[in-house]
Amino acid sequence: MPGEILLTGILAVTFLREKKAGSIKLLNLIFKYSYCGRNKYIFVTGGVASSLGKGIISSSIGKLLQARGYSVTIQKFDPYINIDPGTLNPYEHGECYVTVDGHEADLDLGHYERFLGIQTTKANNITTGRIYKSVIDKERRGDYLGKTIQIIPHITDEIKRNVKLLGNKYKFDFVITEIGGTVGDIESLPYLESIRQLKWELGKNALCVHLTYVPYLAAAGELKTKPTQHSVKELQSVGIQPDILVLRTEHELSMGLRKKVALFCNVDDNAVIQSMDMPTIYEVPLRMQEQKLDVTILEKMGLPVGETPTLGPWRDFLNRRHNATEKVRIGLVGKYDLQDAYKSILEALSQAATYNDRKADIHFINSENLTDDNIEEHLKDMDGVIICPGFGQRGIEGKFVAIKYCRTHNVPTFGICLGMQCIVIEFARNVLGYADANSREMDEKTPHNVIDIMEEQKSITNMGGTMRLGAYECVIDPNSKTYEAYQSEHIQERHRHRYEFNNSYKEEFEKAGMKCVGINPESDLVEIVEIPTLKWFIGTQFHPEYSSTVLKPHPLFLSFIKAAISK
Description:
This protein is an alpha/beta fold. Helix 3 (54-67) runs parallel beside helix 5 (108-116), helix 6 (128-141) crosses helix 7 (151-170) and helix 7 crosses helix 8 (189-202). It is globular. 47% of the residues are buried. Mean pLDDT is 89; it is low at 1-37.
């Protein structure tokens, strides 16, 4: 610490002597070295109702701080007792996101990656299940030396350790921690107690952003602040005073109303921020910047404010999105009629459409309802079709019907994970002539198992965290449409599956016109198939949607949308 003080003093003297145009940058460097050598922690909590957008607000804060030159990461703490969301029904929790290191995670991690362009890991998503398991494992090993294990201090200490883990290991300037659920939930209490302790221990190096809801009562013609007041009181009752309030609303909040909230909730007037409904989530960082949310955070943490970042590339993306007038119609063939179940795919399509100067007009088509008699009315107006990922038998026959229609009518088609496997099965049935072709997942006794269980999966009995997960290498055939999209022979993509293309049939498929153009170099697993004679007909065993971001859209989605436009 004395060395840091000495160096800071030397840098300050240099600044005072030079007084040149670049000295402001030097001064910012001084402050950054002085203060950000110690990690800053921002906690994002929510009240009144779930699904208010804590993940979007956390991502927006991260984006604004990142644009100012700070290194930022975001983590999600989920209060459910599952070890991870891998075994949860998408209707319960939306899509299961997969990190590069093979962790099944909350869908909010997708937002973090899309907004910040970072890669998250297992350490970015912690559940109560993992916290308790870690503490119990330590107790069994005798790490606690015979002590009685309690919520306080043992569970809270484990939470605090995980909060600080990323910052301590990778020296991030800011660690943003989103707490799942809402204030008042019994499951959240240990996390809130941990935040209370950390705020006390860290002083100015920690602050709390609390997201609440301001409802509009149509009968009274009024916006009501009482739910927000009660939410803040609930937070105060566990010893946490929020530093900043973000008010979720469908209507503009007057300055008088915001001052009222500030007065009743013990926060500064400039620390009450409104978050209105936006045409796209990607506008939220700009609206937060307009209200100086990042400035307020920096001031409260004793950091220099400096110039406001322009966010040029981000604004360019939004301008292209806004200026796009023509639509590209994409059919999403799947079994979950819930948008969060395919969140990353929807965002990847939206991003790719924007960079092709189109608006993505996405139509969900329930595969359970598809038959040979009605398929044309569902797909005839689609410019392109996504065959969605998933598990299990339900809706599978409808996917085969959709694939056959797309293949025979030359509709640009993109099969992802199970969607790719369905493309293979449909081709085996209707082109190779194996009418009973199937996957071992759907029919264990099928004589033509063109999709088979992976060798390393055969002895596994546990469901959670046992699939082929995370990023794997793939080598692409340079004479393929896939290569034209990637412009690279060597790629790395994320997986989540336990069944694979059966290589025993590879030669037959290729002779009949379906090419295996992407191969894992270690396992020889077929990662990508395509029919080169068709306009755009590609299936991937991996999930490319996970790695598509706002400023770096995925090349396969860009290529797919381009093909759909020129249909």
